[in-house]
Amino acid sequence: TRDNDIQINAVFVSRRHAVIQTDSDVTRIIDWGSKNGIRVNSASVSEHFLCHGDTIIICNARFRYEERKKRDSQ
Q1: pLDDT value of residue 57
Q2: Is the Cβ–Cβ distance between 29 and 18 less than 8 Å?
Q3: Which end of the chain, C or N, has fewer beta carbons within 10 A?
Q4: Among candidates 10, 5, 7, 2, which has minimal Cα distance to 60?
Q5: Chain centroid to CA 51: how far?
Q6: Across the chain, what does the average pLDDT equal?
Q7: What is the pLDDT of residues 25-41, one digit of tens each?
Q8: Considering only CA atoms, which of 19, 20, 58, 66 is closest in space to residue 39?
Q9: HSE-CB of 21 using CA atoms within 13 angstroms
Q10: CA-CA distance, 66 to 35, in Å (whole number)?
Q11: Which residues touch 5 (CB under 8 Å, ≥6 apart)?
Q12: φ, ψ dihedrals at 54, nearest 5°
């Protein structure tokens, strides 16, 4: 839906398929009960703590998770 930060226009993607959440220095992806699930590095997961270079697959859409250094707050 338009309420989502990332929108994938595909038949088998749920309206609220998954959420990516960052707390401090940890980022994870959580399946929100979608019918077709999510895969990280080719494995089906319901929740996964992401590491630099992980491949996230939602239906036929493929994403690569990349961590970047935090900017100095000076």
Answers
A1: 92
A2: yes
A3: C
A4: 10
A5: 11
A6: 87
A7: 899 999 998 888 999 99
A8: 58
A9: 10
A10: 26
A11: none
A12: -60, 145
